[in-house]
Amino acid sequence: QSLLTDFKKTLDFSPATCSLAQLASNSTQWVDKQVTLHGYVGARRVANKTLVFAELHDMSLTSIIQIVSSVTKNVDSISRPHDLLRDLEQHTPVVIQGTVKGRQAPKAGQSSKDESKPMIIAGVEIKLDNITPLNAFPKDLIVTSDTVFSPEKRHLQIKHDKSIRDALIFRSKVSRFVRDHLADNHGFEEFETPLLFKSTPEGAREFLVPTRNPGFAYALPQSPQQYKQILMASGISRYMQIARCFRDEDLRADRQPEFTQVDLEMAFASDEDVMRTVEDTVKALWEKMLPGAALSEAFPRMTYAEAMSRYGSDKPDVRLGSEIRRVEYMLPVDLVSKIGPLSDPIVEVMKVAISDDPATTRKFVSTFMDSPEAASFISNPEGQPGISVCDSRKPLQGLQTFGFEAAEQLEETLDLQDGDLVVLQARKNAAFAGGSTPIGNLRLALHRFACKQALLPPHDPQMFEFLWVTDFPLFTPTSIEPTEPGQGGTTGLTSTHHPFTAPKTAADVDLLLEAPLEAKGAHYDLVLNGVELGGGSRRIHNSLMQEFIFRHVLGMSDERVGNFRHLLEVLRAGCPPHAGMALGFDRLVAVMLGRESVRDVIAFPKSGRGEDLMVGAPTRMSDGQMRTYGLQMAAKV
Amino acid sequence: QSLLTDFKKTLDFSPATCSLAQLASNSTQWVDKQVTLHGYVGARRVANKTLVFAELHDMSLTSIIQIVSSVTKNVDSISRPHDLLRDLEQHTPVVIQGTVKGRQAPKAGQSSKDESKPMIIAGVEIKLDNITPLNAFPKDLIVTSDTVFSPEKRHLQIKHDKSIRDALIFRSKVSRFVRDHLADNHGFEEFETPLLFKSTPEGAREFLVPTRNPGFAYALPQSPQQYKQILMASGISRYMQIARCFRDEDLRADRQPEFTQVDLEMAFASDEDVMRTVEDTVKALWEKMLPGAALSEAFPRMTYAEAMSRYGSDKPDVRLGSEIRRVEYMLPVDLVSKIGPLSDPIVEVMKVAISDDPATTRKFVSTFMDSPEAASFISNPEGQPGISVCDSRKPLQGLQTFGFEAAEQLEETLDLQDGDLVVLQARKNAAFAGGSTPIGNLRLALHRFACKQALLPPHDPQMFEFLWVTDFPLFTPTSIEPTEPGQGGTTGLTSTHHPFTAPKTAADVDLLLEAPLEAKGAHYDLVLNGVELGGGSRRIHNSLMQEFIFRHVLGMSDERVGNFRHLLEVLRAGCPPHAGMALGFDRLVAVMLGRESVRDVIAFPKSGRGEDLMVGAPTRMSDGQMRTYGLQMAAKV
């Protein structure tokens, strides 16, 4: 069979005698040497019947060298290498044998240092002696420089988009740096913890892994949290792991069902120790991998309450400006009552400096309000936003809504200029809960929309605004953020982060009994440019205290508490105080590279529906598989 | 509540001003300084009412410093720190405040460099000013230096056995070294591949992960094999990953349902390239982590056929000697026919030098034959072993069974001495298949038994005999090693390793059609001291060839081949030749440290039944969980 014959020819191919990188680094020393090169056929130029130029891309598609084949006119006999070089499909993997020759430097521009393109070796070229194809490249695969491949063709996407390969290599270097820095500068070692764990009511829904013992299953961990706490109780003082984690959640907002986190935990440590360690590591990482960026000396800190009131978000993007202020005290009573259905609301205002020209800003407002992005703000049950545009040619600068006194006060407080947009928004007079307020979301939406319309400049990719957010409420009313399946408590409270977070101070411990919603947790989030890079906390290291939280504050049943029996046992055995943190690694890399989506920094990301479209996962379970695990499809109800 | 009060006291503890390591490294400079230390209370000695000595173990339990508390006799008032130091339970985590004082060097021996014990700081001690307990250590937990903890108490086992902690830290350093070496010396980067993969008939049974789309499931990968091949087709030239893998197999012989492997793959590479890279990495690893050990310049190589015939194993432990030889040609015909039920068998013989004294060896033989270890050899359907003991005081040196001529020949060939044990074993006259022969297993069993009986010396822990085993048969009759669930072919052939292994030579390609069982694969195993550290192969990089193997050699159905459609597509897109390898990381670390079981180098290993006895995994699925995934228990048949 011819297929066997074809395959046999590719079994014994000559090893490469050098890489293209070696040829590039010291090209003159190679001149007139015989070399064997591996790579892929690139673009060709057939000068005439006797002269062909072709690019050879090296095996990692980072460098290009020119291959030249010429045959003398009066040779009638067929030159197979010459014909192959001319006729092989582009992208065919080949072995090239030839002689290194000096080359006139190509025209300027071709060898430019554009890192998004492969480097073209300028000093030498290869005179072709022989070429051996190692596989076929099918004619039905069309690849041009601007082909957009579907997720099913992830291999072609990676192969033909250098930016994806570069991102994956960058990712690898980041993970090595973080590991080494934590080890060499802070005494951490990496400990691998099991992925076949068990289901515990920690918060998110876990994937289950059925066993052949019918009815029994492992669960994939949503984080190594419990195992790392066990390590703290086991005499391990500094734990780190770049760990795979799993959540069977409805995938929104660029989340993946499996993701990677930089996970760490420190014994005998407080929140401050962890924040110092992480801050040092992050700064060192930026210095190493993004040397151009300037970071602030010490990352600023902000409490949750401050972040929510100034930016309407627990992960504020402070680059945007547009701070939010409370103004209900300065507004006419009738305005406050007209502003929405709430009685005695809090009213907040912010300025967005869209343009210098009121007409432009007014056009922007109406375009925005007509766009789908505005829909959720218009239907906000707490009232829709009131939007004015500052315009000195209008009465009260266009701020008539506010009445004379408030308009004047606002103009001064917000330092209003022509074309500034002023947004007014009411909300319920209650303590903050959850991750954002409507005006906070509107702040982001307006900036995003204005960037898209080129009214605001795009963000400087070298600008990194880090921020620690602290003093989160330890508990959130279950009604605000219903987690699935949640911790299963019965008191209407859910741990804001997870049930292992310690109360921040002695006063917060006292609040557990009287006003648990007012208790602050020893939790801290690291925020960068409006993205939550990760969070951590001091943990409850005392078994009685942990059980008290489970049972009396969250109201878990005996059975639920029993799921955590191992943790309570471990804390009981003289566990030292400990604190830790987890950084979302996919997101960290994406933000470093200025990528919108974590999918750009994951080799094989899942789709929005959790599918790997390239390999076709998940698949239907066979009857045999179901039988093996003692399962069958649930009867339709 | 008092529990809240107790907990509050541990919320604000003083940070440590230095570590015990810092105190040890330059102890004189610390004298008379005030310090705050963290750690655990160790052994106490109450000299008298006014003088207490206590050990303080540092937070990683690697160093110990002496704490001294003395109160003056005529002080009647209570000294709380003094009382606490005397009365706190051992193992209590504490903060110690005190003054560094010079100390007489303790008696010799105490500060010895026994790495299995914590280091005792000799030059200084701490005069106690204050002590704060940070948690309680319960009186019902009994911990002595020789307590053996059950797997349920893994935290206590790790905490109180320094050798486990040291092994875990060693493991972390090995993984860093391997990653860095492959990156810095061989150009590899680490690429993370998905763990939520799909079920493919690669060989072992996969764990399934049901999704909320009823009837659909992911599968956990048995290795990153397919994804790394996809990367090879995606322009990634050097891939590595320290990867978690999963197999839902019946757990025998120290296997874990989840395990870690050092996985690598190289584009445009042959078997030789991979073996060279791995050999270099392994040598560098040993040099770094086990500097005392001497490794051979180049790892020896042996074909599968040679390993099976000389050692009866495809992972021979060459340290043992006792080579196996075929002897049927020299034996009397009637002996051959008596030796077992087979007609025309192959008969093999080996010598084990148990002792110099025939009586001792005879006693050993009868003890062994009566032990459970011998049962499988006695019931071997190919005939039980014939065991003789060389004894110069007996006729024919005790080798009467062999007849005069053969006895004399054997004596010379095997260089027999008094007390040597001679084993004769028949086997079917057929090509080798599978991992070992009965005489090969008997060779190991006899050596193990003789070591246990102290008749043979234990292995030198610094002796590492590496070996490459090559030229495995590409296919194995399905009847020999029935895999579960197997590749589902219909021709009675199973890929010896996996269906992606390339035939070794052009001649082996030709054999695919006529005599596939004779075809050799381009597979190589790295063996160390009789342990298979890992294996790899050149892969089939040609789509048509891969489909030919699936369909025509293995006889897979359309549906089964369809499961690999993604791989065939990827190979089709101009995939370059590639080869790779995977090293079992748990086993690698265990062998480096001379540990019998991989459980000694895994923080939280699973039991022989696949359970995590500490956390209690797996657990019974709740009705709600089953409902979420559209499943129910299969009806009893």
What would you say this structure looks like, in words?
Two copies of one chain form a homodimer. By secondary structure, chain A is an alpha+beta fold. The first copy, chain A, has three domains: 13-141, Beta Barrel (OB fold (Dihydrolipoamide Acetyltransferase, E2P)); 165-301 and 466-624, Bira Bifunctional Protein, Domain 2 (BirA Bifunctional Protein, domain 2), CATH 3.30.930; 318-452, Gyrase A, domain 2 (2-Layer Sandwich), CATH 3.30.1360. In chain A, 29% of the residues lie in helices and 23% in strands. Chain A has an eight-stranded mixed β-sheet, sandwiched between helices. A five-stranded mixed β-barrel of chain A has the order 1-2-3-5-4. Chain A has a four-stranded antiparallel β-sheet with strand order 12-13-15-14, covered by helices on one side. In chain A, a hairpin with a 5-residue loop joins β7 and β8 (216-219). The longest helix of chain A has 25 residues, at 162-186. Chain A is globular and about 100 Å long. The first copy, chain A, starts with a helix and ends with a strand.
